[in-house]
């Protein structure tokens, strides 16, 4: 279609779903461990096997997170004055009439979400690896256990918000992570600076 | 069933280590080659094959240049057990009806988090990475027998019975303060000390690490409250403000 614009490439889309599926497995098994949920253990074939799956899903999560840097980090690190105003105005999500300044390829909220995901993701991966590979050193174990759970809570809340904003709250957004494209007019309304830069 | 406990009196211990042998014998734990460290103490530490041992503590003073204390080291069967709190595998560590903290190797997933939860550095791991520690001979006491160590002790340094009775006994025999009477929900391994715990190489105030308590009180519940709140806030926003339908979004310039 001529009036579409490409917002995500194939690599980005595949990597997004790799992160998402591993994250989902990690959260479900994590809840099983946190709250001793026997049914969750059974689904994974017992708690011992769930530990193995949790650990390897963690590796996949960490790897895909690191790969995501190529797609988003450069963009996410540039914060303009307009981004600040966007944030102050709550991204226009607080009312129907809210107007926000023009945004680049990622809006300020998406930048913030990505940076949080990256940071908490690195912490949760590193602490998980420590518990897995450096067992028995009490100091490290306790620190890792604490950091693993703090970053878990942060990620859980942030990703829930991400899922809502990328589906129900913004009709038309979800298709980016399937087809990679959005209608040009749709993009112009939300990412004006980027569309302009792309020469449309 | 009333809570059972061991009462350990280092001053009565003669350091014969019959308890170590009886423990190995009952729990079928093999011997380990150790090295002479220049002391009569042996083995040097708890291990997957050493559930209890006697620490030889030398406290020479002017009045008594050869004071030697023999202090039994093992799981304390905490009333509020940090190992159980932190363990992610249901049933790996469990409390028996006598109040002992026992384990089930089949259920243990070998994550070793219990090392972090235990205030007494007790849990050890076997070759298959499964937890190993004193169980208060839960298989014996559930059949009405005394633990192997208490059964074999010739001097009365390790006694076993109802926890209340052990505390009474200790106080009646002149040990006003019983180590483990109240700390950590009350220990299932009580000590009758004459001096400050530090003299015996024990902590004055043993406690579950604060990070584990913080995790248990705040971070763990936050996982489901946080998730619930995020979902609720999303739904509320959807109903109260509504989605950004494309036809309603203004050009943002
Ligand atoms: S090593 Fe075993 S007993 Fe210890 S916390 Fe992990 S699962 Fe529980
Ligand atoms: S001493 Fe350690 S292993 Fe024993 S019950 Fe207490 S916390 Fe658990």
Descriptive notes:
The complex is a heterodimer of chains A (200) and B (253). Chain A has 200 residues and is mainly alpha-helical. Helix content of chain A is 69%, strand content 3%. Chain A has helices at 10-35, 38-43, 47-76, 81-88, 108-133, 138-166, 184-190, 192-197, and strands at 4-6, 181-183. A two-stranded antiparallel ribbon of chain A has the order 1-2. Chain A is elongated, with a radius of gyration of 19 Å. Chain B has helices at residues 18-27, 82-86, 113-117, 138-141, 148-152, 163-172, 210-240, and strands spanning 4-8, 53-58, 68-73, 93-95, 101-103, 124-125, 131-132, 158-162, 178-179, 189-192. The longest helix of chain B is centred in the C-terminal third of the chain and has 31 residues, at 210-240. Chains A and B meet through helix 1, helix 3, helix 6 and helix 7 of A and helix 3 and helix 7 of B. Bound molecules: iron/sulfur cluster (2 copies). Residues 87, 89, 92-93, 103, 108-114, 123, 131 of chain B line the site of one iron/sulfur cluster.
Topology diagram in text:
The complex is a heterodimer of chains A (200) and B (253).
Chain A: E1 4-6, H1 10-35, H2 38-43, H3 47-76, H4 81-88, H5 108-133, H6 138-166, E2 181-183, H7 184-190, H8 192-197
Antiparallel strand pairs in A: 1-2
Helix pairs in contact in A: 1-3, 3-5, 5-6
Chain B: E1 4-8, H1 18-27, E2 53-58, E3 68-73, H2 82-86, E4 93-95, E5 101-103, H3 113-117, E6 124-125, E7 131-132, H4 138-141, H5 148-152, E8 158-162, H6 163-172, E9 178-179, E10 189-192, H7 210-240
Parallel strand pairs in B: 1-10
Antiparallel strand pairs in B: 1-8, 2-3, 4-5, 6-7, 9-10
The complex binds iron/sulfur cluster (2 copies).
Brief rundown of the structure:
The complex is a heterodimer of chains A (200) and B (253). Chain A has helices at 10-35, 38-43, 47-76, 81-88, 108-133, 138-166, 184-190, 192-197, and strands spanning 4-6, 181-183. Chain A has 200 residues and is mainly α.
């Amino acid at each position: 279609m001529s009036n579409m614009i490409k917002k995500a490439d194939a690599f980005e889309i595949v990597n997004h779903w790799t992160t998402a599926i591993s994250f989902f497995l990690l959260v479900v098994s994590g809840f099983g461990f946190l709250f001793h949920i026997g049914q969750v253990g059974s689904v994974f074939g017992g708690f011992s096997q769930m530990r193995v799956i949790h650990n390897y899903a963690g590796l996949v999560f960490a790897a895909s997170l690191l790969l995501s840097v190529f797609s988003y980090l450069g963009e996410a690190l540039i914060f303009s004055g307009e981004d600040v105003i966007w944030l102050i105005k709550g991204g226009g999500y607080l009312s129907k009439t809210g107007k926000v300044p023009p945004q680049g390829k990622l809006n300020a909220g998406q930048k913030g979400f990505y940076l949080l995901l990256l940071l908490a993701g690195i912490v949760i991966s590193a602490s998980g690896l420590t518990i897995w590979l450096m067992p028995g050193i009490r100091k490290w174990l306790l620190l890792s256990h604490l950091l693993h759970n703090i970053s878990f809570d942060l990620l859980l809340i942030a990703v829930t918000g991400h899922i809502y904003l990328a589906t129900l709250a913004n009709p038309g957004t979800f298709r980016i992570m399937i087809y990679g494209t959005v209608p040009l007019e749709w993009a112009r309304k939300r990412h004006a600076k980027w569309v302009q830069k792309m020469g449309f | 069933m009333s809570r059972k406990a061991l009462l350990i009196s280092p001053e009565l211990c003669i350091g014969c280590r019959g308890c170590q042998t009886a423990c190995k014998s009952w729990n079928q734990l093999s011997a380990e080659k150790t090295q002479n460290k220049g002391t009569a103490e042996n083995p040097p530490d708890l291990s997957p094959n050493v559930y209890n041992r006697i620490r030889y503590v030398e406290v020479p003073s002017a009045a008594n240049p050869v004071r030697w204390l023999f202090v039994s080291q093992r799981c304390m069967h905490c009333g509020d057990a940090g190992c159980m709190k932190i363990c992610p595998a249901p049933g790996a560590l469990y409390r028996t009806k006598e109040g002992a903290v026992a384990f089930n190797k089949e259920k243990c997933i070998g994550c070793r988090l219990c090392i972090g939860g235990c205030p007494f550095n007790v849990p050890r791991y076997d070759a298959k990475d499964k937890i190993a520690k004193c169980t208060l001979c839960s298989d014996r006491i559930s059949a009405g027998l005394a633990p192997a160590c208490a059964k074999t002790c010739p001097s009365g340094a390790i006694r076993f019975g109802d926890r209340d009775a052990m505390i009474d006994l200790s106080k009646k025999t002149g040990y006003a303060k019983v180590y483990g009477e109240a700390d950590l929900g009350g220990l299932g391994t009580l000590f009758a000390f004459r001096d400050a715990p530090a003299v015996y190489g024990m902590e004055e105030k043993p406690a579950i690490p604060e990070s584990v308590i913080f995790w248990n009180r705040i971070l763990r519940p936050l996982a489901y409250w946080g998730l619930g709140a995020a979902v609720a806030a999303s739904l509320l926003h959807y109903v109260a403000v509504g989605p950004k339908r494309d036809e309603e979004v203004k050009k943002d310039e």
